[in-house]
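assembly run, all chains below
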Amino acid sequence: MSKRLEPSEIEERLAQLQGWEFVDNFIIKSFTFKDFKEAFSAMTRIAFECEKMNHHPNWENVYNTLVIKLSTHDAGGVTEKDFKLAQTIETIFTS
Amino acid sequence: MSKRLEPSEIEERLAQLQGWEFVDNFIIKSFTFKDFKEAFSAMTRIAFECEKMNHHPNWENVYNTLVIKLSTHDAGGVTEKDFKLAQTIETIFTS
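ok done. output:
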């Protein structure tokens, strides 16, 4: 079971990621793609990783935009699992 | 180009659909699935239809839940295109 991180720990880890913010008890990032097909393709790749990690995002898609919000429900806040998933998502986008 | 429908026209068409509501200039429905895999599989089927129709939803997924909001950006409101897509989504779920 993952432990909820303190805001100072969250800020420390966010410094190692590009474009993620800590808002309302989630770590959040917005992405913009060329079109819907590109956005949904990225979502599909992320979905497989989430399923493998058994850790799932709150996410919202509108045409070519995607907002991903990560938090650990059971822990009531952001945990290491969220940073692990954020890192995996970044790896997908830079691959 | 689709014409924005009047609220009375929207209500009339909603009466022919199961579980859709008119809220904040969108027609909206929430779906619940067994798990994330089922939810995302449904999204994938919907995504292909949207791409074919060139009409895309605002949608939000959290684990096994999916909220779909339809509106026609260019028309500034709900049009026949949204009802056509809602009908297609219903057909996917009942197939």
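Residues 36-53 of chain B form the longest helix (18 residues).

Chain B is about 45% helix and 20% strand.

not gonna interpret more than that til we talk
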